[in-house]
Amino acid sequence: MASKQLRILVPVKRVIDYQIRPRVNKLGTAIETTGVKFSINPFDDIAVEEAVRIREKNKSLVESIHAVSIGPSKAQDILRNCLAKGADTSTLIDSKDARIEPLAVAKVLKEVVEKQNANLVIMGKQAIDDDCNNTGQMLAGMLKWPQATNAAKVEFLESGRVEVTREVDGGEEVISASLPLVITTDLRLNIPRYVGLQNLMKAKKKPMEKLALKDFSDVDFEPRLKVNSIEEPQPRAPGVKVNSVDELIEKLKDAKVI
């Protein structure tokens, strides 16, 4: 394969587990996190899996896989999980529970990319806690790299280019780009593997660099958005059964839907 060695960077985020229903705290100012289970962001888990699969398919192609997370010290758990799945090294950037917005995250990741000399970033298209879906795009813009977002399939061609299939309205869109490249992952890209206890124990021996926000002095971490309040969504009204199409039409007219 006529392509350069891959140095893959995989950013991951610690979020409330996707199986948990978030609850608003008593003050209505934030989501309750006390006693709540956290895990790796599902889209990021897919990104880690894809990086490992790329290595498994092309063992001579991948030089390294580095996982990085910006979050509290407890985010070490998800980084250990990444190492257990096949990442070689990792970096924890301790945010001390501060809320870091996507622009600041992208700026930090740009510095990490440069430090690791990475030429491929694979990351989740969005985090399920804020659903911003813009960190990957901003990172690509800052690096001046091509980007392939919402990837449902990734293939490395003999020419050295990367072909990415994206699901769009009405079908699929296939794009190709050369390295360096930023890819953001969608749900249908793969199914992440289960990590066994033995691999988790082995992961403890792999390197984990620990940094702090102060190590990125050129990045402004001051939030640009202020959350005034958070409310539970209104419960859905019960449905109504109708006995005929005519009755359905009348109901829709009464609701001013048609």
TrEMBL record:
<dbReference type="GO" id="GO:0009055">
    <property type="term" value="F:electron transfer activity"/>
</dbReference>
<protein>
    <recommendedName>
        <fullName>Probable electron transfer flavoprotein subunit beta</fullName>
    </recommendedName>
</protein>
<keyword id="KW-0813">Transport</keyword>
<keyword id="KW-0249">Electron transport</keyword>
<comment type="function">
    <text>The electron transfer flavoprotein serves as a specific electron acceptor for several dehydrogenases, including five acyl-CoA dehydrogenases, glutaryl-CoA and sarcosine dehydrogenase. It transfers the electrons to the main mitochondrial respiratory chain via ETF-ubiquinone oxidoreductase (ETF dehydrogenase).</text>
</comment>
<keyword id="KW-0496">Mitochondrion</keyword>
<dbReference type="InterPro" id="IPR033948">
    <property type="entry name" value="ETF_beta_N"/>
</dbReference>
<dbReference type="GO" id="GO:0009063">
    <property type="term" value="P:amino acid catabolic process"/>
</dbReference>
<dbReference type="InterPro" id="IPR014730">
    <property type="entry name" value="ETF_a/b_N"/>
</dbReference>
<comment type="subunit">
    <text>Heterodimer of an alpha and a beta subunit.</text>
</comment>
<dbReference type="InterPro" id="IPR014729">
    <property type="entry name" value="Rossmann-like_a/b/a_fold"/>
</dbReference>
<comment type="similarity">
    <text>Belongs to the ETF beta-subunit/FixA family.</text>
</comment>
<dbReference type="GO" id="GO:0033539">
    <property type="term" value="P:fatty acid beta-oxidation using acyl-CoA dehydrogenase"/>
</dbReference>
<dbReference type="Pfam" id="PF01012">
    <property type="entry name" value="ETF"/>
</dbReference>
<dbReference type="InterPro" id="IPR000049">
    <property type="entry name" value="ET-Flavoprotein_bsu_CS"/>
</dbReference>
<feature type="domain" description="Electron transfer flavoprotein alpha/beta-subunit N-terminal">
    <location>
        <begin position="28"/>
        <end position="219"/>
    </location>
</feature>
<dbReference type="InterPro" id="IPR012255">
    <property type="entry name" value="ETF_b"/>
</dbReference>
<dbReference type="GO" id="GO:0005759">
    <property type="term" value="C:mitochondrial matrix"/>
</dbReference>
